[in-house]
Every structure is written in structure tokens, then in C-alpha cells.
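Extended Data, panel c. Modelled sequence:
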Amino acid sequence: MDHIVTVQDAVTAFADFMEPTAAELDAIDAEMPVIRAEMELLDAQIVVIDRAPTELDERRIRRARRRVLAAHRDYVNGLPMQKGGAA
């Protein structure tokens, strides 16, 4: 008979020392507008998965795509400049 034994890493996966750092939380906060815009686009696409999109659905998807692009642009433009990039 084999005994089932818990793995220590799985048991302590949420220990205090495994919490995200302040820098990681700041990075998540900075990327949150992109995440929200992508979720909005996904919601718009899910609505029309099992039916033909109406004109209103198509407009909603186009607006959501533009918001995703704008959020990505704003996020990338807000990043600090990297040294050694292509000219």
C-alpha cells in the first residue's frame, strides 16, 4: 500500500516570504489599465462566440481593440528608457 504524502513546497506555497514585493505590486498596478482593456475586449468577443455579431457588437469589439492598443501604447511610453537598444 502506498501512502500519500504532502509535498512541503505545496503546503508552504503561500508563506509570508513568498508574497510579491513592493516593486512587483507596482509593476502590476502600472499594467492594470492594459489588463482591464484586454478583459473588456475578451468580454466583447465572448458575447458573439455562438452567434453572428450585430452592428452594435462589431462597434463594441472595435472600440475595445482601440482601447487595448491605447493602453499598450500608454504603458510602453511610460516605461523607463532601456540602454543598448536598437538605433
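The chain is about 60% helix and 0% strand. This feature is highlighted in the accompanying rendering.
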